[in-house]
Amino acid sequence: MLLPLAYTVLAILALAKTSSSANTRGFCDGFIRTTNTSILSGTNESQKTKSEGIDCEIANLPTIEIIRCHGYPAKAYEVTTEDGYVLTMHRIEHGKSNAGDDFWRPIVFLQHDFLGSSADFVIQHHSKSLGFILADHGYDVWMGNFRGNTYSRKHTTLNPSKDKHYWDFTIDEMAHYDLPAMLTAVLEETTEGDLMFVGHGVGTTAFLAMSHYRPDLSQKIRLANLMAPMAYISNTKSPMGLIAREEGILEFFYNWFGDGELLPSNTIIDCLASLFCINPATVGLCSELVFIFSGFDSEQLNMTLMDSFMHHSPAGSSSKTLLHLLQLINSGEFHGYDWGSKHANQEHHGDEGVPTYHLYDVESPVAVYYGDNDLLADTTDVEQTISELPFIVSSPNIMIHEVDYTNWNHMDFVWGMDAKTFVYEDLMDNLEWCAHAEC
Fold first, then answer.
1. Which of 33, 93, 169, 335 is the most buried (most CB within 10 A)?
2. E strand or H helix at 272, and its extent?
3. Average predicted confidence (pLDDT) for the chain
């Protein structure tokens, strides 16, 4: 039954294979959604600007305006990677009731999943979204955006709409350049010596691979919280697994999608969201698409927010990042992207060729959170990851958290209505402990 659905997904991917344009986003519902580029590091435009009369959860706003709409201070910072990609980070410096320079705030850095963005952490009501919850609990919250998504579509020399070479990146580049650049920039801006990390899905994949390139940064991570970790993914029950194992499918994907952008937040996706995800008669179609990939859990998905979810996600990435994930599914190992030839691999990876990522290189203290109904991060794969990580925190309690909810799926970590109860309370306890003790 899932295989025909997998091919339906292929059709959707083909329909959406087009460059995004800031001028066309929000066309179908009257909202113009553009990345906020006027608020950069060095500016002081961080005041609260709560929008009276606007429902912040369904107004189809960019991340920085969502934050302000809820009454929180918001800043955006741009950082340029060593290979020329310009990334945007969003910051919630404090909560609604704990402003003041005399208040010490530990730093928490949030990193989104594949095809996600910083919006994932503020998309729900402020009482349910992790970014707001952390800010209200006294943390200085930073949210990263990987290259190629809605908020990180700039380069010092390449135009993402015209230059296909812009899209020549995979998870390797996110681990090698994106995360190190963003984490270093946060530490420099705040003058703090370390921070705490929270990643979701591919956000954890990049973090775990980062130790191969920047082992020095392990000492800067006070605690790494891995929600739905995706180092090993060969046991995935998602249609991605079915697609990856079809004979000749990798060649098909490379020939059709391998030269550019994948699922940008563009007119087609915007229109589909507006046409099908807001109408009560058809909103089920949107939720089914989410469930097919992440796991069925209708009780945790707020159907009234489906339109907002789908306007923000997918937020775009490179086609080769998807190909990288398919390679990991097929190999059953944790490694870099195979570019197809010795010459190409040496060009991208150096003389060593395709790197193997070893989890024993991850020297940061780690906490893990996973769900039994996660089709992407299957429990078998998560358990293998756990068995190979050398520094999972064991005091005062073992920081391995299997979500106590049978149907907890991949997207419930950010979209689940009860994520605060089932995940964030444990996460907050772990952050609080490690903020004041050596973990």
1. 169
2. helix 267-276
3. 83
